[in-house]
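Example record used in the benchmark description.
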Amino acid sequence: MEIRQILNNKKEYLPLLLLGDEQEDMIDKYLERGDLFALFDNDLKSICVVTKETDEIYEIKNLATYEKYQKKGYGTALLEHIFQNYSDRCKYILLGTGDNAEILTFYNRRGFAYSHTISDFFIDNYDKPIFENGKQLVDMIYLRKTI
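Model output (structure tokens):
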């Protein structure tokens, strides 16, 4: 397993990024200003984009693993790499996600706790409704981890 920071041609990773964020113009808002990490295990498995929000806070904007490789530890390995890589740069890592119990549990098990909610985020910022597990996403739930 190898994790590489991608410095050039970040849009080449768009197909996987779209699994984590379904609208390309939303990805465009953070991709170039963010640090892009890709996890390879023979081939590409997972991807993560991290942005600097303040001197103390970095935010995970996108974490995605191809569906056939989910629940195999790739997302966790990428998160651990992010925690190590940013531990000397900031106090907190934030991430926003929808109200999906499985995803919230995944992040809670990795040390994230509830921070705040942005009401109607997915309604106000996306062109079409987004559904996960048959449920429409409405509010953005922010989680925070102290590192």
